[in-house]
Design a protein that fits this description.
The chain is α+β, with helices and mostly antiparallel strands. Helices cover 40% and strands 19% of the residues. Strands 3, 6, 7, 8, 9 and 10 form a six-stranded mixed beta sheet that branches. Helix 2 crosses helix 3 and helix 2 runs parallel beside helix 5.
Amino acid sequence: MSLPGSRPTTMRPLMRSGPVLTVEERQVMREVAIVHVTTASQIARLLFPDRSAEDAARAARQLLLRLERFGLTRKLTNPTRERRGGRPGYLHVLTEAGLRLTGVERAPGQRQRRSWRPSYHFVDHRLAITELYVRLREYAQANGSEMKEYQAEPDSWRHYTGFAGERLVLKPDALTRLLVPGLKLRLSWFIEVDRDTESPRRIAEKCTAYRRYELSEVEFRRFGVFPGVMFIVPDEARARVIRRVIAKRPAEDRGLFAVTTDNQAMEALHRPLPVAADQRP
């Protein structure tokens, strides 16, 4: 079973001596398996969209606490949140037992799961990827669209062989496939969640990597479509920087890429580029 908008996750049978999870607890496990790093407030918005913010947050914290006591999730101090008066901020990730239960093969910090202490910039970026997933789910509920798939890195990465036989890895921040009402189209996107931390040269290298992967035809042979590449940036000033990088690309490359600001991302992701549209729902 998988939630709308998720990649398939497998809830492997628990040992007889293990905990019996409720439906809501299993939902939490599936959501964390998709995004890998999340906050209680993001879980609250995913599971309890019709409750008040206070009630939803309380219910989410209780579920996460129970899963932590079962040894299936672990909380880490959130370095992106200032620790002033009141409740401190925490991140929630799956433990080794949680990874096994959900069938997740790769996750950030997996090799050092017990001692993992992610940096500020890592967490800021990862929570932005999770927030995109939450917003897409909320947008779908409000507008009648459907998120058929969402993969957060490393699930969104693509391993393939280059023209010279070298082993290459394309590393999108996320991949999503959306069904848009009235268009009869499935929109597929590789997503770069840009935090204004990379130079124009690095952006150009990313564009080259996407074009190289497109020319390999691996994605098209497997899925019948090559996703468009959407850069989601903090503001219009950053958008201009990335658009200038794209404008310097060869003419045949430019149509692969699109740029949008964070506050316009939902509308942009539901508006097709020719290369991002797949006629088969």
